[in-house]
Write a structure and sequence with these properties.
Helix content is 35%, strand content 26%. The chain has 2 domains: 133 residues, Nucleic acid-binding proteins (OB fold (Dihydrolipoamide Acetyltransferase, E2P)); 260 residues, Bira Bifunctional Protein, Domain 2 (BirA Bifunctional Protein, domain 2, 2-Layer Sandwich), CATH 3.30.930.10. It is α+β, with helices and mostly antiparallel strands and 496 residues long.
């Protein structure tokens, strides 16, 4: 490695530790408590003078002649340590003073006491280096604020920015709450393939890979939907999965090529049952994370207490644009209506895609309070069951909040003949230029021919939910390692 001057200086201290007989990367350490455990029962520890062994990273360091103070941090928090030349011994004290730096991970043993100013501290009787850091931490006052550096060196970001660690602790608690909610309602968690011979379950472009031994192209899944519905065919009545999905699409504040999806399917249920499940689950998560049912995001506070308002997609678009999608039923007719009403949307290759663009452009940004947009046009929803009273629309909904769609849900299509025609329509859409159209999946059709009961299904974006509950404006802040453009000249070293 080509080390800079600061790294060379720290390397010299590492070599001095070894020369003094202290291995700077020992294989193990004795640790009896965390910093938080000591602080929570500090007076008891101080009174008993019990031996305490801690380990942590040096985050603050003050060497003052014959005595030194430092703050060490573990995952639970920080605590001050005190080292005295008189009590530690001249050789050990000098080694600490001369070879330690901010960022080093050390182990200390001693007892609890309060300084003259009353600060809880550990009087160190022995210390050892556990990991000598060759890279310096970011400068204290400037911190680590550059977004690109933070995301590329998330390990440093987590060290110096406590609020970042808290975001990912919240994410973990959110997923745990989702699991508890589903488990309590009789759902079982399952795992389905991430490598699939035919991708499906969503409108998206896939990532393609190749299995050498089988001489077969495979796709990273864009959704687990079609495999989960096979399990409903197989006799499981309530299943869910939390896992990765992959979509070869653009990167923006709401999208990352790799993301975490939650999907569940319930036999003998429809989209009304799933709407109730969705609003109940999000209210449950809110209570688990915040103790209440309100969420604050982007300067707005909303209450997620059920029931949420339902609004038909046709009505939502008509109210905001004046366009009736039930009357403009061809691409040419819809384009004409858009021009007549002076509506501006990006050009799309199919009628269904253009309707979806109207929803995204004119409806979605207005839905700050929790809402369900329901009853989508059939061509926009190739896996959803038709409405009995109007077969041109399907029983589908999407939950919206803070101007963002959180997921997708249907009364699932279980008629194999209708599903075959939908797949054929998708093939025609692909031929018309829709590169996100679904593929024909003959095995899934065969599963439906075996018989799938009436079923309701739901997919939610775990990352987007985490954004809302943590107040983060971009998905990159709730992914530990988001996808970033490679920089060929970036040597990945922290700024000195």
């Amino acid at each position: 490695m080509d080390l800079n001057e600061l790294q060379q200086t720290r390397l010299g201290k590492l070599e001095r530790l070894r020369a003094a007989g202290m291995e700077p990367f020992p294989p193990r350490v004795e640790r009896t408590h965390t910093a938080a455990q000591v602080l929570a029962n500090f007076d008891s520890f101080a009174e008993s003078q019990a031996q305490i062994a801690l380990a942590g990273r040096i985050m603050l360091r003050r060497v003052m002649g014959g005595s030194s103070f430092a703050h060490i941090a573990d995952e639970s928090g920080r605590i001050q340590i005190f080292l005295s030349k008189k009590d530690l011994g001249a050789e050990s004290y000098k080694l600490f003073a001369d070879t330690t730096d901010l960022g080093d991970i050390v182990g200390v043993q001693g007892y609890a006491f309060r300084t003259k100013t009353g600060e809880p501290s550990i009087f160190v009787q022995r210390w050892t280096m556990l990991a000598k850091a060759l890279n310096p931490l970011p400068e204290k006052h400037a911190g680590l604020s550059d977004i690109e550096t933070r995301l590329r060196q998330r390990y440093v970001d987590l060290i110096v920015n406590e609020e970042v660690r808290e975001t990912f602790k919240l994410r973990s608690r959110l997923i745990s709450a989702m699991r508890r909610f589903m488990d309590e309602r009789g759902f079982i968690e399952v795992e389905t393939p991430m490598l699939q011979p035919i991708y499906g379950g969503a409108a998206a472009r896939p990532f393609t890979t190749h299995h050498n031994q089988l001489h077969q192209d495979l796709f990273l899944r864009i959704a687990p939907e079609l495999y989960l519905k096979r399990l409903i065919v197989g006799g499981f009545e309530r299943v869910y999965e939390i896992g990765k999905a992959f979509r070869n699409e653009g990167v923006d504040r709401f999208h990352n090529p790799e993301f975490t999806i939650f999907e569940c399917y319930q036999a003998y249920a429809d989209y009304n049952d799933i709407m109730a499940l969705t609003e109940q689950m999000i209210a449950y998560i809110a209570r688990e994370l915040t103790g209440g049912t309100t969420i604050t995001f982007g300067g707005h506070t909303v209450d997620v207490t059920p029931p949420w308002p339902r609004i038909a997609m046709r009505d939502a678009i008509m109210e905001r644009t004046g366009i009736d999608i039930a009357k403009a039923t061809t691409l040419e007719a819809l384009v004409a209506e858009i021009k007549e009403h002076n509506v501006t949307v990006d050009r799309q290759p199919t009628w269904a895609k253009l309707v979806d663009e109207l929803l995204k452009t004119y409806v979605r940004p207005t839905l700050v309070e929790p809402h369900f947009v329901i009853d989508y046009p059939q061509p926009l929803s190739p896996l959803a069951k038709r409405k009995p009273d109007d077969p041109s629309f399907v029983e589908r909904f999407q939950p919206f909040m803070f101007g963002s769609e959180l997921g997708n849900a249907f009364t699932e299509l279980n008629d194999p003949l209708d599903q075959e025609q939908r797949f054929l329509e998708q093939g025609r859409a692909e031929a018309a230029g829709d590169d996100e159209a679904m593929q024909m999946d003959l095995d899934f059709l065969n599963a439906l021919m075996t018989g799938m009961p009436p079923t309701g299904g739901l997919g939610l974006g775990v990352d987007r939910l985490t954004m809302l509950f943590s107040g983060q404006e971009t998905i990159r802040e709730v992914l530990l390692f988001p996808h970033l453009r490679r920089i060929e000249t970036d040597d990945q070293r922290p700024a000195s």
